[in-house]
Records
---
Amino acid sequence: MKTFYFFPFTHLSEVQASTLECFFSGVGLLSLGRETESGDRISKMKDSGLIHLLPIPEQRAAEVDKKVKSYVEWAKIHKGNERNLKALARETDYLKDDSGPTAILSQIRCAMNDRPVLQEGTKEKDPLLFLRFAQIWDQENEAIQKELTDIETSSSALFAELKGEIDPLDDADLKEGGDDPGRQRTQERILAWSKVASEAGLSLLDDETCLLLTTSQAVLDWLIEDADQVINGLDIESIKVHHNDCDQKERWQKELYAIFDRILETGTLAETGFENSNSCCSLSGRIRFCLFPGGELNRKLNIPGRQVGVCLVELNS
C-alpha cells in the first residue's frame, strides 16, 4: 500500500490521531526529534504499525531545540519586554549571534510588519525553527481546549444534577473543539513543512506521486487556490468509517486504498462502490482526494516534476 504523509503538522492531537486511525492503516509522520506531549501517543501508534516516522538528523534537531529553549527562557523571565531583551543581549555573549532569541524576535517583528526578513548580513528563516514553534503552539492549544471542554462538561453535569435531569452530553472523545489549527499561518506551515520534509528525504522517494494527508480544510483550500491545475478524484461529505476494533474496519480500509489506486491510475473521479454497513461502531466522516499534476505548486512543495495527491479526512460531529 502507498504511504500518505500527514502534514503540515508535527504535533498529533488526540482528535487527529483518532481520525487517521479510522481512515488509514499506515501513515507517515515527520518527526522533529522531539514529540513533546504527544510522544506517548505517537509511540503507541508506532508500535501498532499505524505510524512510521520520517526523522530529521539528531544534530539538526538539537540545534533548533537549543534556540527554542533560549527564547522560551527569555520569554518566561522578561514577559516579552523588548528593553529587557536588548539589555540581556548586551550582557550575554551567546545572544549576540544569529542563533539566539534576538534574531528570532527580529524575524517575528519583520513578519508582523510585512517587512522582508532577509537583510544584508542575516540568514534565511529556518523552517525547522518555525515548525518547532508551531508544534509548541498546537500542543498548548490542545491542552487549553481540553481544559475548557472539561470545565464545560463539569458545569453541564452540575446544572443537570441540580435540575434533576439526566446529563444530555454525548461522548465527546472524537469531537474536536476550537478552530482548525491549519488556519493559523497556513502558507508558512505548508512551506516550512515541505522544506523540512524534503531535507528528511521525502523528495527522494521513487513513487511517481507524493501522497499527503491532512485534517485541515484550510490547508486543502490554500493548495487548491494556489495550484495551476486540480483533479478532484474523490469528494464524499458523509461516509461511514470504523473505529477501534470493528471487524469491518480492515476490509473497509482496503476498499479505500483500492479507490486511491484507481484514481492515481486513471487521473479521474472515482466511483466509490463502498459496501453498506449497519455496524453499531460505524462513524460518519468526510473525505476528499485531489490530484495536483504539477507546476508552480509542486515546486513550492519541493516536489518538482512529480504529481502530488492530497487527501483531506475529517470526522463529522
Note: Residues 93-97, 117-122, 167-177 have pLDDT under 50 and may be disordered.
---
Amino acid sequence: MVRLLVTAIVIAAMAGGGFWAYGEFASPAAQVSDQVPTIAVTKGDFRRTVDSIGEMKAARSALLNAPYSGQVVKLLEEGARVQKGDTLIWMETEEKEEQLKDHRNELGLAEKDLESAKEEYRLQEQQNGFSLKAEEARVEIAEQRYKDSQQKYAAEETLVQKKISPQSRLDEAELAMLQAGVELRNARINLQKTEEN
C-alpha cells in the first residue's frame, strides 16, 4: 500500500512537473507566434517590394558623351549587352544634316576658288616667264646695239684720225654709243626688277 501510495505521488509529481514545464516552455512560443504576421499560402507569382529612401547605382557604370548636343530620339534597351562600337543612343540629326549640307556647299565654293587661284597662278607663272624672256631679249638687243655703236665709234675714230671723215661724224658716233649704253643699263635694270618680281 505504501508502495502504491509512493508510486501515485511520484506519478502525480511527474504529471504536475510536466504540466508546469509545458506551460513555461510552450507559452513563449505561442506568444511569439501571436506577434508575427502570417498569411495563408497560395499558388502564384512571388512579388517582393522594398520601400526605402536612397539612391540606386549600377554595379558597373560608364560616362557616355555624344560628339554633339541634341535631342535623344532612341536609347538602347536597358540591360542590353554591347560591344565596342555599338550604337547606344540615336539623336535628332536634322539640324546637323542641314549644317553639313551648308558646310559641303561652302567646301564646294572653296574648292572652286582654289581651282581658280591655281589657274591664275599658272597663268601668272607663264606671264612671268614670257616677261622674263622679253626682258632678257631686250638686254641682248641692247648689248648688241652697244657693241655695234662701239665698233662704229672705233671705225669713225680711225677715219677721223686719217682725216677721211669729219669730227662731227665721230661726235655723232660717240653720242649714239652713249645712248646705246644708257639703253643697255636700263634694260639690265628692268631685267633685274622682272627677276625679283
Note: Residues 71 and 92 are 5 Å apart (CA to CA).
---
Amino acid sequence: MKVVDAGRDRRSTIKGELERMFLGQFEHTIDDKGRLTIPSRYRELIAGGAYVTLGFDQNLMVLTAVSFDNISGSIRGTSVTDEDARALKRWIFSNATWVEVDKAGRILIPQWLRSKCQLDSTAVIVGTGDFFEIWSPELWARHQENLQDPKTTAQRFNAFNIPL
C-alpha cells in the first residue's frame, strides 16, 4: 500500500498553479519597430500567442487566449441595451489585437496602442496573476506612489477580505 503525504501533494499542486501565473515586474526596452521583449518565464505562458488590449489604468493588458475567451464570453453575455455594457464591449474589443512571440522572445505592440499608454522606448511589465500589464515607466511610478501609504492601502483593500 502506498502512503501519500497529502501536504506534499497539495504543495506541488499549488506550485504548479503558481508556475502558470504571471508574477513579478520587469523593465524592458521597446525597439523602434514597437517590439517588446517578454520575460522568459512569461513566454512559456503565451507561447501560442496572446491578446493585447487597453487596460483600465492607461496601460495594456496581455491575456492568454483562454483568459481573453473567458472575459469576452462574460462581456458578450451582457445586454446590448445597457449603455455601460456597450461601452465595455467597445473598450475591450476595439482596442484588442492578437500578438505572437517571435523567435527572439518579443511581441509587436501596434503604434496606436503604444500611443494610448504613453509607451516609448521603455516599458514596465507587471504580472497580475492571470494576465500581465505593460506600463510606461512614468505612469507605473505614479501608480506605485499611490499605493505607498500603508493606512490608505489597507483601507482600500479591506473590503476584499483576503484570508490566508
Note: Residues 37 and 91 are 25 Å apart (CA to CA).
---
Amino acid sequence: MATLSRVGVAVGFLAGWTVAQAGDEETLAISRLEALPCSGKTIGERLAEEILKHSRRDLGWRIFEGEGYRDLERSLRVSKAMEIRYRWRSRASGVPEPISEAAKGLCP
C-alpha cells in the first residue's frame, strides 16, 4: 500500500495535478492492473517478487495520460544509473496491454 500513496505525488509532479485530484481513479486503475493474472500469479505479485528477489528499490507508480489512453508505469531502481520500467497502456474499452519490454517479459 505504501506504493499506492506515491501515486498521487508522482502524478501530481508529472501532470501538475494536486494529490487530491490524483486519487481514486488512478488508484483503481493500478489496482485493476495489479490483479490481472500473470504466470500463475498476479501482476502485483510478480512485481513484488522482482523487487524482493533482486533487492531493487521500488520507485512506485507513475501515470501518463494521453488521447484515449492512460499509461501505467512501475519503476524499479537497479543501480544509481539504471532503472527498469514496466509500462502498460490502458484504454477505456479494454484490458491493459504491456508496451515496455520489461512488462512484456514479466508474464511469459
Note: Confidence is low (pLDDT under 50) at residues 1-21.
